[in-house]
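User: Can you predict the 3D structure for this chain?
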Amino acid sequence: MSASSYNSNPLNRVLAKRSDLHLLRKIWHMGSGTLCLAVYYQTGELANLWGWAILAVAITGFALDLARARWSKLNEVVISMMGPFMRASERNGFTGLPFYALGVALALLLFKPKIALLSIMFLVYSDPISSFFGILYGKDKIMPNKSLQGAIAGFFTCYLLALFYGMSYGSTGSGLLWFAILGGVVGAIAEMMSAFNVDDNLTIPVISGLGLTVLNYVFHIL
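Assistant: Here is the predicted structure, written as structure tokens:
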């Protein structure tokens, strides 16, 4: 194979590693999530309908990734289009998109809407922020690929989200404060689950939704 043909093949492009900062992927993660949240609120907050629709997106994404693994030509097309947002580990395997969609869909279908939306916000904002600080400043490892600095960033992001989200529904006082603090802990723990080779796009909304459901039962915030 000539050098020119090798370089022109999308399958040979250099994709980012998990340890790379990969700002474009983080911007995509937060931007697309914010857009979807805005559309959700603008269309009447139909949680169950959106849950099934996004589940269909997840199934389609898994089917596409399986097809990519079988047909190199299809994989070339996908990588040529989505390569800047992909990781090296996703070249011939599952991408984060179907897990992202599956996590969002399960949150909308399993939890009450207010809880589901907060757990999805944890995914949209806490995941890239904790990764950003973990990669840049993560000197103290507490788990494989997880640092104390990243976990603290994830905690504070989830804490602030829970605090202001609760305030937006008129909650105040010590109950809201404890809900936000413990919600931050739940979100940080959910984000760290990816250290066990489970995609955090799935674990964050599901585990956070479970934890926030329990906390809401105790503190009656949402």
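The CA atoms of residues 15 and 78 lie 13 Å apart. The chain is about 75% helix and 0% strand.
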